[in-house]
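Follow-up to my post from last week.
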Amino acid sequence: MKEIIADESRPLPSSGKKAVAKKKSRGLGSREKRFAFWLILPTFVGLTAILLYPSFQTILWSFQHYVLTDPFQHGFTFSNYTQLFHDHVFWLALKFTIFYAVLSVIGQSIVGLGVALMANREFRGRGLFRAALLFPWMMPTVITAVVWRFMYDPNYGLFNGILERLGLPHSFVWLGSPTLAIIALFLVAIWKVNSFAALVFLAGLQSIPASVYEAADVDGVTAWQKFSRITMPMLRPTILVVLVLRTVEALQAFDIIYGLTLGGPGYSTLNLPLYLYQQAIQGLNFGYGSAMGVVLAIMISAFAIFYVKVLYRPESLG
Amino acid sequence: MSLTEVQSQREAKRKTSSQRYRSGPVRRSKRSGWAKARMGLFNASAIVLGFYALFPVLWILITSLKPQSQLTTQPVTIIPSSITLGSYRTALGQAPFGRYYINSLVVSLSSTVATLILGTLAGYAIARLRFRFKKTVLLVILAFSFLPPITLVVPLFNLFRHFSLLNTYWALIIPYTFLSLPICVWLMNAYLQDLPKELEEAAMVDGLNYFGAFIRIILRVAIPGIVTAGLIIFATDWNEFLLALTFMTDNSMRTLPVGIALYPGQYTFPWGIISAATVLALVPVALAVSVFQKRLISGMTLGAVK
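User reply:
Got it. Predicted complex:
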């Protein structure tokens, strides 16, 4: 009964009432298309107006002298880019942006993979363990940074306090020297994100069929071989996704640095997003900020393409 | 297949595999002390890692409950001798955190609802209606999620300045709605695709048109998917900082993360109050996590594994 009814709402090319069915189906089909069009239209209009149009404006402004405190000039100019080229703070920020993105993503992925391998095994309190993993992810990034800054405080902070109680050297000014500040920043970045990486890896691990491991057990394969010959290759697509997503985000890191060091001491932890913010929003130099935005967007695309080229192997996507 | 089905299948898979494969070490532990030691080591590192994930949260909780006198001892007091709710009272009473809280709630809830409405409509069309270039439409929508927000800050700032929307809720509701929309469409598409085909057909037999079928039938079945997407989007909006910092310059319009980050005094932080405000900021998301843990994990990882 259900099938007959279902058939009536679909085109019936071989039926006797061919013409009628065709007309009916065309009417139905176009009504369906029209409905789909109206459902998707608001999304497209909104995304274009709020995300795409501003992106084009950024590109346009990067070629204009657009400082809010100066009179607006329409002329086309490369001055923002030449100024960037001669701005040594920009180069410092650019270098640190890449350094931070690469190292933090590597750290987050390695710790995340370890955590995922652990959470993939059966043990008591595993549910609790996984709930604990969600905490760092759900904490607002800037609040995370503020909380860690509190723990790094040289006088009343947790870390120096524990060191003092253990009778160890305890007068570290954690955020006061470039080296210590960078290490401190990486500790926060790894804490904040490794659990996200772990949860994605865990989902990837659970999609590997247990029968593969059982077969390996029969063949008497060692634990290390199982890891390097089965787990890693089968996890490759998941690793690719995590690397791309995380790098794209790490190149745009703003909250964590704003909350922890504000780019200091000196320029030692200043990255492009923070420098862009300082120049464009605090300095009101929209043109200069836009040029930096364009550089950043190009870098993000380059990284994404690089990862996909290196790691994408269609056959392993199964 | 629905999210819950995927979940339950995984659960089942895990159970069978644990009986066969993963119970190996336990069986072997009867044989050697070495395996027992390894299990001990494993448990210890699970505890250490779990603690590592939680200790900053615990520390903030402890600090928020400390009496004023124990906040500035040297070395730091790890376990306070008494606890008090004084910091919470100050945070909500004297400091403007109550106001920040309301701002955050208004902005996050409104933009989450707006995203869900638009995203469910578009996701439904892509998942269940027949039209050409469907894949292209989905990919174009998804490509929007790779536009870096940091490059949008300047033009949006200018746009909202032009329309006098800075320091109004609109300045955040509008961008949040559309920044989360691609992910929402993606999640809803994935969820709705897995529902049985006969749903609309049965509805149309009952005399409903496409719109009626969508409102009366699909929406009802889609609720679990909408809840999952809603939680992830709400958490994202609740935590957003860059746009909130830039577009809300008036102290009374700040959201909670901005309010906490900018609370007076870079160097002499009133830590008790800040900690209390942080704990309060974590409450809505913590509640969501504890109730919907499995849903959240499957939603978060859906895009990555599929």
